[in-house]
Design goal:
The protein has three helices and five strands, in the order αβββββαα. By secondary structure, it is of the alpha+beta class. Strand 2 and strand 3 form a beta hairpin.
Length: 148
């Protein structure tokens, strides 16, 4: 009975402290600069560049999942804010600054695949580590050879 009580108290203590472990994640709109525009392109007293907006879920600054539509936007230098472009504005920017917008907006490789590759490598490393531990535990000790 004392062991059961001890295990219950340990479980409560562990679960109480586990909720205090911070997990850094983000979910929502992200912006990425695709083309630098001249310093004369200013909106609301701040310089903007040509870029894309997309929605992303990330854990510990590692992008794991992109969702929603990717759109062309004007992005501030710090990539914290963006301004939507309608078709006329997009056509004007395309002609004025010679930017290719014929294809669908794309995000960088890191935002598209980088986080997924890191997670796959971590999972493979954990599997490899657990298999090597099992093999060490299953090794048969060398039998003592009889001396003559």
């Amino acid at each position: 009975m004392k062991k059961v009580l001890f295990l219950v108290i340990c479980f409560i203590c562990i679960s109480a402290t586990a909720s205090a472990i911070p997990i850094l994640y983000s979910n929502g709109l992200k912006f990425e600069t695709k083309e630098q525009l001249p310093d004369s392109v200013i909106i609301n007293n701040g310089h903007v560049n040509f870029g894309v907006s997309f929605k992303q879920f990330s854990i510990f600054w590692v992008p794991l999942w992109n969702y929603g539509e990717t759109e062309y936007v004007l992005v501030t230098d710090d990539e914290k804010n963006a301004y939507e472009l309608d078709t006329d504005e997009l056509a004007y920017i395309k002609e004025t600054y010679n930017i290719d917008t014929d294809k669908a907006p794309e995000i960088s490789f890191w935002n598209k695949m980088g986080g997924k590759l890191i997670v796959i490598v971590l999972i493979l490393f954990l599997i490899w580590g657990s298999r090597s531990k099992k093999e060490e535990n299953n090794e048969v000790p060398p039998s003592a050879s009889p001396e003559q």
